[in-house]
Design a protein that fits this description.
Elements lengths: L4 E4 L3 H12 L4 E4 L4 H6 L5 E2 L1 H9 L4 H6 L1 E3 L1 E6 L2 E6 H5 L3 E3 L2 H14 L3 E3 L3 E6 L7 E6 L2 E6 L2 E4 L7 H4 L6 E16 L9 E5 L2 E9 L2 E8 L10 H11 L2 H6 L5 E15 L2 E2 L2 E3 L5 E2 L7 H22 L3 H28 L7 H16 L1 H12 L4
Parallel strand pairs: 1-2, 1-12, 2-8, 5-14, 12-19
Antiparallel strand pairs: 3-7, 4-7, 5-6, 9-10, 10-11, 13-16, 13-17, 14-15, 15-16, 17-20, 18-19
Bound molecules: flavin-adenine dinucleotide and P-hydroxybenzoic acid (PHB).
Amino acid sequence: MKTQVAIVGGGPSGLLLAQLLHTRGIESVVLERKTKDYVLGRIRAGVLERGLVALLEEAGCADRLHAEGIVHDGTLMSYGDEMFRIDFTEHTGTPVVVYGQTEVTRDLYEAREAAGAQTLFNVEDVVIHGADTDAPHVTFAIDGETHRIDCDFVAGCDGFHGVSRQTIPLEVRREYEKVYPFGWLGILSRTPPVNHELIYANSPRGFALCSMRNENLSRYYIQCSLSDKPEDWTDDAFWQELKRRIPADQANALVTGPSIEKSIAPLRSFVTEPMRWGRLFLCGDAAHIVPPTGAKGLNTAASDVHYLYNGLRDWYENGSAEGVDLYSELALARVWKAERFSWWFSSLMHRYPDQSEFDLKMQVAEIEFLRTNAAAQKAMAENYVGLPY
Ligand code: FAD
Ligand code: PHB
């Protein structure tokens, strides 16, 4: 097989890049380790920045997003029974859109199928060869049979556990990591959201988040111990704990019901540098991870796609290497700002096992400052709706 861009990973990064390239007549093949149903079964991000919405529009995949996505002009934050609101539209002129990653991925797969573009599922043993040469190729197996794709470039969109990052030699790669001493236990339930906006809650019992997918599908999270297992938590225990962590009036209004998904995600900040090695480009979770506080994971993957797409367009349409040469630098400059915001917001909202009385006072003072200071709210809002590309 031969293509222009071989894309390893059929998650949101890989699919969005493939669809954008397709609109410019640039050919790609997407290699996905799992089945389509498996990819669509993963419940992940729910809040889209304006930049990702614009990319989906450019890819011709935003019709359902515009019809079904819920525009949020602000968010609620609470500590104990105190609750206040940060108005994104007032501070930045821009809202965010609540629309699940699962739906984004579904729309991209559908567009790909409609365009007759190639996605190979159940691929195993992906190996990237010659990334530091002008003629890279990728080998992989399907049903035990080995295949080879020759290409101009390889996009490593295969998430945190993929092979692309590992392809970059250790002497070139530099990794930065912070692991948090807690996780998030999340559930999805067919119940109306407790509030029409998200609630980020800091409580003495730990963090909680009330989110949603649509008017009858709610997503709730509570900070949990790293040793907890989803099966340790009955639905009833989850709802009781959530109610203790949000303001009383919200707890009283909460409609509970059976969970249809329950999982635990560890929290991690991670960045690898550089994001390019020769003709291999890392995109999204393959290069960086953020804790989910602030919903930057998927959105930061999208900004990588933006820089890579424009770099590849520069190459194929203008014969210029400038965009691909600048990719790592441009992508990382924005990645580190998203890392900073996610780390700051996580530090502000969670209870840490080793937190001293002084640390707690600092947390409360910082939340109070945010509650009462317009400049602090503007800075928070600018980061939440997404810094410019
Ligand atoms: P992925 O979505 O990980 O996609 C990578 C794809 O590559 C996968 O489909 C995988 O099967 C495939 N792959 C892996 N290895 C190979 C291989 N060797 N060969 C071929 N294919 C391969 N972000 C938020 O903003 N909010 C959230 O609430 C949130 N919750 C999350 C919960 C969990 C459990 C996780 C893991 C992430 C969460 N995130 C969240 C982060 C967000 O979902 C990711 O940032 C986003 O999925 C990144 O997209 P991606 O395409 O770069 O990577
Ligand atoms: C979600 O709806 O899954 C979600 C929303 C906001 C976050 C994290 C997760 O900060």
